[in-house]
Design brief:
heterodimer, A: mainly alpha, B: 190 residues, mainly alpha, 8 helices, 70% helix
Chain lengths: 62, 190
């Protein structure tokens, strides 16, 4: 197995965070994202922001 | 609720309904139509309004159904544009270093409930959704406001699921940037 295959960039992490809002992630992607979020505070912040945006949009017109 | 009180509150709701309908449909005459249909349906079904939910919530519920019908009717025209837009170049390159790191770190957005309690925040949110390219905005609202599943959106808009995920992702990142710049970077609003 290639070394570093579990390491993803923030850009890729953002893609996975978004994909996760629309469908369940493949196991490998879940693992990569989980590991990335463990070490990256900035992406953890973006994770919360994605949830926040969904919540805000559902309240439009209420 | 008596008929007078209902028609008064419906009258007051019209501008809000129109704003949301435009945001979702991106077509002024469709938006006018669905809002008229919604108000008519509300008046005709006034008897079925239990009165234990807010008039606004009830009417917005009707509006969602009318919008879904309109999207189906107008689907063919819209889907061709959507395919073209999905094929167009709109990468997120300007946000990242070639290595995939973000060029500027995302800000701390603070307490979500505090933000959601501000009326002005929703004005900024609407303005930011309006700024998304037409079909990206339409698809994004279908997903987040009408709460369609992604495969339903692909089917209605006749685009591939890859394009659909890509457009939703771009919409989220663009909206994130826009909210940050126009709300969160300004000390949490005016």
């Amino acid at each position: 197995m290639k070394r570093g295959w579990l390491i993803i960039s923030c850009r890729h992490a953002h893609e996975l965070l978004s994909e996760r809002m629309d469908k369940p992630l493949a196991t490998g992607d879940r693992l990569k994202l989980w590991l990335h979020l463990r070490i990256c505070d900035m992406c953890t912040r973006v994770e919360g922001q994605m949830d926040f945006m969904r919540k805000a949009l559902r309240r439009l017109g209420e | 609720m008596n008929a007078d009180a209902l028609s008064n509150s419906l009258d007051g709701l019209r501008p809000t309904l129109l704003k949301i309908a435009r945001l979702q449909l991106r077509n002024d005459s469709w938006a006018e139509d669905v809002v008229s249909e919604t108000l008519l349906a509300a008046i005709e079904n006034a008897a079925s309004f239990a009165g234990n939910s807010q008039v606004k919530t009830w009417v917005v519920g009707i509006l969602k159904h009318k919008i879904i019908d309109q999207l189906r009717r107008g689907g063919r025209e819209v889907s061709i544009e959507a395919q073209m837009e999905a094929a167009g170049v709109d990468s997120l390159d300007e946000l990242y270093h070639p290595s995939g790191h973000r060029l500027s770190p995302p800000l701390d957005w603070g307490d979500p409930e505090t933000t959601l309690s501000r009326t002005q925040f929703f004005e900024v949110l609407q303005a930011c959704v309006e700024r998304l390219p037409e079909n990206m905005g339409r698809i994004f609202m279908m997903r987040e406001w009408l709460e369609y599943e992604t495969d339903q959106i692909c089917k209605e808009m006749n685009i591939t699921s890859t394009n659909c995920f890509v457009m939703l992702h771009r919409a989220r990142m663009r909206l994130r940037e826009c909210l940050e710049m126009n709300w969160f970077a300004k000390e949490r609003g005016p």
